[in-house]
Amino acid sequence: MELNTIFTNQRTGNHQQNVVSRTDFQRDFDRIIFSSAFRRLQNKTQVFPLPGSVFVHNRLTHSLEVASVGRSLGSLAGEYISETYHDDISDLSKDFYQHQLHNVIASACLCHDIGNPAFGHSGEDAIASYFEKNENQLKSKFSEKEWGDLVNFEGNANAIRVLTHKQQGKDEGGAQLTYTTLASIAKYPCESIAKKKGVINRKKFGFFQNEKQQFLDIARSTGMMIEHDEPVIFKRHPFVWLVEAADDICYNIIDMEDAHRLGIVNTEDCENLFLDLVRSVNPDDIKRVGDKLGIITNKNERISYLRAKVINSLINKTIELYKSNFDKILDGSLDKGILDIFKTESSSLTEIERFSIEKIYNHKAVIEIENAGYNVMYELLNHFVPSIIKEKDERKSYDKMALKLIPQQFIYDDATVYQKTLGVLDFVTGMTDNFATDLYRKIKGIDIGMTM
């Protein structure tokens, strides 16, 4: 991939150039911040049940923190590229890498989870399982590739749809972001039938069939390297690695801090894990860290301080590895995530992940919300999908009553069965945890009564 052609200010929909005080990439950041899809992340589960007496992270606060880390990574990477490749890039490119790359990475980080349904990964699992379990009744209504999208439902692919799809009665191009920001969130730039476990750009998939042409436009306009034409597979865009690293840094470390505040993880274990990681990246910093901890006595403040040190250490390690692997990133041959490379050098991050799986992700409260969320999302689909896929003149009164609960912008009655189904998925995946739970209770007759 060529450094002068992997970015563009072209955007989806009406991308007529405007003379404004903000750059195109700053405008991306602001559009995401003010979007309703981003705002709804405040009531979508990150790991722990919401709400609680102790404040923990939700998808919105997580995304804001990832954007903060991503901005730092983008700034450091842009400085490196503009200096190292000074003689190979144009003046326009130098300006972009020096002054705009950090905005692109921050924007992509803001919206990296925007396609995730309520209740975390259990929500995704519920959607895929619904179609798998109803294969006999549903599969014949879809093409092979369309069916692949549904039984492998993926929040990353849904993010591209949320950000680019034109809903009924709304403007073209969805959020109308630049192709550069959209390319930066495409961790798995392939279609669903091309997904392959163990292959970094094909571990999951990155776009639905309905958005295939839009994704092809994004990929070609940002210089992404084609790996295979049919099925469509691209190599990752060079900016994706930074967005992925920012996400990995935050969820690995912040989940631990949340678990400590909730009393799931004790202070000593948390401190030791964080100190080991700082030591593995910058052993010379340990004495200064120890001196600081000698002053701080509040246990939550001690963990907050160490969390900041760990994130700073991982930012520096990420940039170091990004630089040393940059040639492989550009030619599409790098086959491990940045932090996965770090794990081969040090066991400290691997130990945090192992500890988190054992003590946090398998904690009773987390398992309970995942089970509840799975059932809520499954039953909502079961209420709407059978009715929406029927022809209008074949719908019974109960079908019509069910569909009256779906806002009109999600109803595509003159479209294919696949597009009608995606409309229901747009509605259900956009729900917050509370909205989904409330609607589930009402349609199941658990709560009866008028609410506004």
UniProtKB/TrEMBL annotation:
UniProt domain HD: residue ranges: 59-252
SMART domains from the UniProt entry: HDc
Keyword Hydrolase: yes
Alphabetical UniProt keywords: Hydrolase
InterPro entries from the UniProt entry: dGTP_triP_hydro_central_sf, dGTP_triphosphohydrolase_C, dGTPase, dGTPase-like, HD/PDEase_dom, HD_domain, PHydrolase_assoc_dom
Protein name per the record: DNTP triphosphohydrolase
Gene: dgt
